[in-house]
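Issue 218. Parser rejects a valid record. Input:
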Amino acid sequence: MKISTGSKEFDLWLNGGYDKDIITTVYGPAGSGKTNLCLMAAVEQAMQGKKTVFIDTEGGFSIARLKQLTRGNSDIIKNILLLKATNFNEQREAFNKLLDLIKENIGLIVADSIVMLYRLELGQANQEKDKEKINIVNRSLARQMRILNEIARKKQIPVIITDQVYTSFLSQKDFEQGKEKQVSMVGGDIMKYWSKCIIELQNFGQNKKKAILKKHRSLPEKEFVFAINDKGIKKAGFKLF
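Output the parser choked on:
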């Protein structure tokens, strides 16, 4: 009921890897390792002869990094089906194509990220103060999450999506009271509702990263400190603080 993350140490941390029948959401700031985790899992499936549908909305899909992770076996790249979207309408079309693509030997679905184009569309709707458009955009994101959830549950195809973050605004009073800014997922309750596994990534610079398991069906909240290398990721031997 699980697939490998592409790292034995990360597999152990997740008690075997990513669950097949759910959506796993990985969120964090730029440079925290979100796309790397997606590529690692895709390569792992490709090496087993299974295909990955990879929806790229941020332009983070790197052939050079993919070849590095395949350890010279670049032939398996043909097992990764890339769908690119540059606006929210194209993202909707990509999700419509999923229903046909899952008829193939699909071992994984990745959406990296599912919220960037949604965020842009929602921002425009808010700027125009168009309540109807805001509702349409939110319903569209919820529909995409529902599609992914149904695929995972009915077809036993694991889904990994990445999410961006935003930081809450602190008033002068909050600042004076010593309150700290809160980092939250874009998409809020929509993302939390459909995601049964949520992993937060934090970036501390100099290739020092931390994963925090925020939500899981059977595991408690815990942390994994790591660094990115040419093979994927490596559990770090250093302490952050």
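Fixed in the parser; the record now loads. The radius of gyration is 18 Å.
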